[in-house]
Every structure is written in structure tokens, then in C-alpha cells.
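Re-run with default settings, no changes from the original entry. Doing this only to confirm the output is reproducible before filing.
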Amino acid sequence: MSLRRLNPPIHLLRAFSTVVRFGGVSRAAEALHLTQSAVSKQIQELEKWVGVPLFERERKRLSLTPAGERYERAIRALLGQLEAATLELITSDDSRGALHLSSLPTFAAKWLIPKLPQFQQRYPQITLHFVPYVHSYQFDSPGLDCAILFGDGHWSGAHAHYLVGRQVALIAPPRGTGPEARITTPQDVARCTRLRHVTIPDAWARWSEAHGVHGISPFAGPQFDQFTTIIRAVMAGMGVALVPRCLVQDEIAAGLVHEPLPQHGYHSALGYWLCYPADRANHGTLSIFRNWVVDHAAHTPLAQQEAAAPLMPAAAPAPVPAPEPEPASAASAVPQSAR
């Protein structure tokens, strides 16, 4: 079999994928700015090229064969990669163009997005494109330049720059009549319902160790998979929780949650990191964004507090299945649910 036969012309593949996407030749022809006859001929030519029927034809209707379904899924992904690679090439001028990044949704909404207008004002020539977080570990993809991950800073094949997140705050409902409303010492927390994050199961154990609290079971209490959900649960009066201060400082300031013991949080070894593959370290737009976001994070009040606090040793994150498909490329990485 010749190599030529294994590489069908791109216009045939695009016609095939477009027919599937639009559900027929007529709408595909409009999208491709071709006649229906031209599109039909391209489909027939592709089937002749590969020697496998891709469609079943009944009463002028097309439906994919099982082989066609498998082939279309693969072709769709390849065409997407080709488009992303071409866009990256076109916009890869040293200090201009696009940057494709991914971030944990809660961190993006609570910390990163409110700061991005400053980046836009300073670097209007750079366009930021957020890609789904499910792709955050796929550094070999041309559609991803960098990602903000949660963990201890060690990911295989990636450079990592710490941003924020090590300062953890103890938060309680803003009002109530239960034990959560009567916290005056760390030991009082033992009487409260303690909410837990599914991928950081040792958080309460480490908080107890830091403050000499006894009688706390680290595995008791409702479990959640997102920090946003935990914050909302505390606001609703479900219990107390440990949350990165960078994600909850606005709610504390607004009185939506209460911080009963401001001096009794703890300094975790886990946090949010800007990560990217080593071979993109000198990418023009990535270098600009990296320098800006790292410098911005280093000059916040939280950064000064963290610099003065000792680190708690990191524990391996729990191997909990992620709610969405995501490749876990490194043991030190916390799954996508740590948001």
C-alpha cells in the first residue's frame, strides 16, 4: 500500500466532515460555497480513495456506516488541530497575536478574569483564547500554550511558576444558631460540620495539626468537588470549610461568609501554578503573559502574607475520578475538580 493512499487530499476530508456536521449534502454545500454536485463527487472520490463505504444511501438520505463514524471522529480532531496550528503560525509574531490558555474555572472567575482588563490595556495586541480545562494537561496540542493548574508545582515536562493559593482560610456561615456560630477557639471547630474537598482529603488533618486541635476526623463531613460549591454551601449554613483565601476573600469582605478565626488558617504547600511545556518557554506572547501574571501575583497583599508563613508539607492528592474526562499526566497534579 502506497503512502499516497494513506494521505487523502484535505479538501476531500473537509467535505466529508462538513457533510456529517451539517447532516446532509445540501447544507454542507452552502457552508463550503460549492454546489451539491461538487460535494457529492468529493464524497464519492474519498470513498474510492480509501476503498471503504463511509455512508449508507437510502432514498436520497445519507447515514454514516460504522467505519464512517470512526473515521469522521478522527478526521474532525485532526482538522481541528490543523486549524489551531495554522492560527498559531499566523499569529506567532514575537509580541503580537493570540495566546491559548486553560484555567480551572473557579480560579479563572475569582482571581484571573478580574485582573485581565489590566493586561488588555497594557498589551492590546495580544488576544487571549480560553480553551476547555479538560485539555489542560495536553501540552503536546498546538491549541494550548499554557495552563493554570493546582498542585505542588511538579508536572512532568512542564515549567511551572507559582501564582497564589497557599494561604487557606477557615470560613463559617455568616449567621446561625448552631456550633458554627459560636467559634471562638480552634477547638470549637471539632463540634462543627466540616465540609471537605474531594481531592484534598488531608486539609482538616493538616489544619488540626497546625493548631493543636484534637477530636477531628479528617474524613467526616459532606464532600464536594469544587471550591465554588463549598463556598456556596458555607453561605447556605451547611458547615465550615477550608478554602484558598484568594478564592473567598471577596465573600469575606462582603460578609457573605464569616472568618471566625482570621489568624487560624494554614499555609498549604499546594497552590495555583502557570504551567507550559519547555519547548514554548520563549514563545513571544507566552513570555509576555507569564511575566505579567507572575509579577502581578507577586505584588499582592496575599503574596506578602505567604512569604512570611511557613509551608505545610504537601501530601499526595487523592486519586479521585474527575467528573469530566481529563488525562492525569503527573502524580503530583490535583485533578480538575480542585477549582
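Residues 155 and 188 are 38 Å apart (CA to CA). The radius of gyration is 26 Å.
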